[in-house]
C-alpha cells in the first residue's frame, strides 16, 4: 500500500482538541516540545486512540509518559479486557533519538501487526507552529 503524505497538526500546550476528520486508522508521530498538564496528556491520549491512532511514535518532552498514557488509553477503551488485533495500538518512545531517526523509523520500520497504516499524522505540541520545518525534514529522510 502506498503511503500518503504526512499530515501536520499543531497544538499549543493544553489547547482544545480538534476533531480529526478524514482519518481512519493511522500512524502518529507525536512531537512534544512543551510541557503540558498531566490531565491534558491523558485527555489527548484518549482522543488520539479514539480518533484511530494505531501506532504512536513519541519524541520530545516526557515521551515515555506519553507512551504510557496512550497504552493506558487503549486498555481503558476495551475495559482492560482483550483488545482485538486490529485495534492494538503499538507505541514507542524515542527519548535518545534525533527527530530525523524517528521520521526514518516511522517510514521504514513502524508496522502494525494486523493492518497497513497508509496515513501518517504528525502532532506537534509546542509554542510555535513548525509545519514547514518538520514537513521538510520528514520528506528528506
From TrEMBL:
DUF7684 domain location: 6-139
Pfam families linked to this entry: DUF7684 (PF24733)
Name the UniProt record assigns to this protein: DUF7684 domain-containing protein
Amino acid at each position: 500500500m502506498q503511503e500518503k503524505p504526512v499530515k501536520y497538526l499543531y497544538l499549543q500546550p493544553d489547547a482544545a482538541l480538534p476533531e480529526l476528520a478524514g482519518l481512519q486508522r493511522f500512524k502518529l508521530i507525536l512531537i512534544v516540545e512543551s510541557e503540558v498538564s498531566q490531565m491534558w496528556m491523558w485527555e489527548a491520549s484518549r482522543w488520539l486512540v479514539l480518533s484511530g491512532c494505531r501506532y504512536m511514535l513519541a519524541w520530545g518532552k516526557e515521551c515515555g509518559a506519553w507512551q504510557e498514557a496512550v497504552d493506558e488509553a487503549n486498555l481503558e477503551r476495551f475495559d482492560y479486557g482483550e483488545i482485538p488485533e486490529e485495534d492494538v495500538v503499538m507505541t514507542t518512545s524515542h527519548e535518545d533519538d534525533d527527530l530525523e531517526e524517528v521520521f526514518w523509523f516511522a517510514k521504514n520500520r513502524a508496522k502494525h501487526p494486523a493492518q497497513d497504516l497508509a496515513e501518517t499524522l504528525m502532532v506537534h505540541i509546542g509554542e510555535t507552529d513548525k509545519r514547514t520545518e518538520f514537513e521538510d525534514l520528514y520528506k528528506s529522510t
